[in-house]
């Protein structure tokens, strides 16, 4: 199975309103809620692609129960979340009639040292039956900022390929622990390297320790620097839609391609097509299967294989 | 015990943010949550006054469990909520650094005819040990608009004094069933009677069936027309603060005074002081005990006893 780690899981709530006016009272016309946090989103896409997937991370409180109820209703996902005393955070997306979104993100639960230890033990056990692992998203309060670096070292010791998708200091420390793949977006990459020039920044991120770097450049597709070569994957056109979850779809595409031993250009094609099919889907964070099937034949990958 | 009915219970969530900007992403700096819906707020005040109180109404889903967990932590309140398949609604109050509030109210759960029947049976059983009952707030989808009228008739049959605090068509139909007390605010009273002149509107509401009408006029206090006489209760000054729950504090003051057989002027004094002490409390919906003790001696009640 593929393992995804979401230390800061969330209950993602969507509220539809006519228009959001500060200091007014609003009737919410529609409420949607589902398990959230990057690793859970990645798992949902992997499950839809037919890959057995196990999710771990922290979960707690009534919101945590709602997350676990949602996972139980999603075929193909095994729930191996670790309980904490604090409550899983909520995120609230208030969507108005124009489709614009106002986002409210609660802080995550305070994780105790004992809970962090319990997680690390559970993680190591899960890794023993994992073909690959993705470490995704922000860290809740109480988890040390070097957490991902430690989890990467554990995965490398057990020879499980590891992908890191986070930002800021956890990304900086994680990269130094030599993950197999990092997948920053343009902003995260610039923050890590100080360079806003994607090709230079991607090269620099490899020098900092990442074995392969796949930068997601929004509607411009992906830029990959890997030990096997460098490629650029471009969707057939720019798509308008909701970019929520597009980055998570890229991670799912890369991971599924990795465990299927696809060549890099095929992994990038899959990841780019999944990302565009997510932007096109009517529900945020889902992907449109028909659009995916069509786009897979239309992504352009250009680049060169390394001489080494 | 005093019974309060909240057919549309809520999980009240407060989110503190620096400033709410439509279409931006916000870090919530503080999250508070507690059981909500008017009848539960009334019960909290009654319990704080030392009155044994039982709450009923509908509760369901993960949000419903959070409501019940909150009630279990509130001393003096007995939980007799009736389970439904749908989920209890959330209300979200986004409070910015200036203290201004933006409110998002989810719709209530769809109540089935079988669930409504189960509630009516439970209500009748609870009434048999109740000294008074308050029917509070809006109706969730699926509950007939004449619901309160039916619940009032049941209470009258069992000789349990009944107070109604709702709005719109449920208020109009409820008043016609001759409740002992209705407590509209100025807006609800104007909607019921078509008159914006409080004294005329209060008289008119009695003609429509209510035996006593207590209109809450915000910072101007209360206006009461009862079979025993007419009074006006005025706080010593206008208070600045958060009016959330001030109306529920009035209901708690009136009900507690009723079961203690206090004369009307004393009930109105208590209700006015509780309401002002709620506006003054730092936490929305709580009342400030010291302010209440002080204000009780400062409320002015003027009026006349009926000749009858």
TrEMBL record, chains A, B:
<feature type="region of interest" description="Disordered">
    <location>
        <begin position="224"/>
        <end position="243"/>
    </location>
</feature>
<dbReference type="InterPro" id="IPR029056">
    <property type="entry name" value="Ribokinase-like"/>
</dbReference>
<comment type="similarity">
    <text>Belongs to the carbohydrate kinase PfkB family.</text>
</comment>
<keyword id="KW-0067">ATP-binding</keyword>
<dbReference type="InterPro" id="IPR002173">
    <property type="entry name" value="Carboh/pur_kinase_PfkB_CS"/>
</dbReference>
<feature type="region of interest" description="Disordered">
    <location>
        <begin position="190"/>
        <end position="209"/>
    </location>
</feature>
<keyword id="KW-0547">Nucleotide-binding</keyword>
<keyword id="KW-0808">Transferase</keyword>
<dbReference type="InterPro" id="IPR017583">
    <property type="entry name" value="Tagatose/fructose_Pkinase"/>
</dbReference>
<dbReference type="Pfam" id="PF00294">
    <property type="entry name" value="PfkB"/>
</dbReference>
<keyword id="KW-0418">Kinase</keyword>
<feature type="domain" description="Carbohydrate kinase PfkB">
    <location>
        <begin position="12"/>
        <end position="285"/>
    </location>
</feature>
<protein>
    <submittedName>
        <fullName>1-phosphofructokinase family hexose kinase</fullName>
    </submittedName>
</protein>
<dbReference type="InterPro" id="IPR011611">
    <property type="entry name" value="PfkB_dom"/>
</dbReference>
């Amino acid at each position: 199975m593929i393992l995804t780690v979401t230390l800061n899981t969330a209950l993602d709530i969507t509220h539809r309103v006519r228009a959001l006016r500060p200091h007014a009272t609003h009737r919410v016309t529609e409420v949607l809620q589902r398990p959230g946090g990057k690793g859970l989103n990645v798992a949902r896409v992997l499950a839809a692609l037919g890959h057995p997937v196990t999710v771990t991370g922290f979960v707690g409180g009534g919101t945590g129960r709602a997350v676990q109820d949602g996972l139980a209703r999603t075929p193909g996902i095994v729930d191996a979340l670790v309980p904490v005393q604090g409550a899983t955070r909520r995120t609230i997306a208030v969507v108005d009639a124009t489709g614009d979104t106002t986002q409210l993100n609660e802080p995550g639960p305070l994780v105790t040292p004992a809970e962090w230890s319990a997680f690390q033990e559970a993680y190591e056990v899960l890794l023993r039956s994992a073909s690959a692992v993705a470490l995704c998203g922000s860290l809740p309060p109480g988890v040390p900022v070097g957490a991902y670096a430690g989890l990467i070292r554990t995965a490398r010791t057990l020879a499980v390929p590891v992908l890191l998708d986070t930002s800021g200091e956890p990304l900086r420390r994680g990269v130094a622990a030599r993950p197999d793949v990092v997948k920053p977006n343009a902003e995260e990459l610039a923050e890590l390297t100080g360079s806003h020039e994607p090709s230079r920044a991607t090269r620099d991120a490899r020098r900092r320790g990442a074995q392969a770097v796949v930068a997601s450049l929004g509607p411009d597709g992906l830029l990959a620097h890997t030990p096997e070569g460098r490629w650029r994957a471009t969707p057939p056109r720019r798509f308008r839609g909701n970019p929520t979850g597009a980055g998570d779809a890229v991670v799912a595409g890369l991971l599924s391609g990795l465990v299927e031993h696809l060549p890099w250009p095929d992994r990038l094609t899959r990841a780019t097509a999944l990302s565009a099919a997510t932007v096109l889907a009517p529900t945020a964070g889902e992907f449109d299967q028909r659009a995916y099937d069509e786009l897979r034949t239309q992504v352009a990958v250009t680049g060169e294989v390394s001489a080494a």
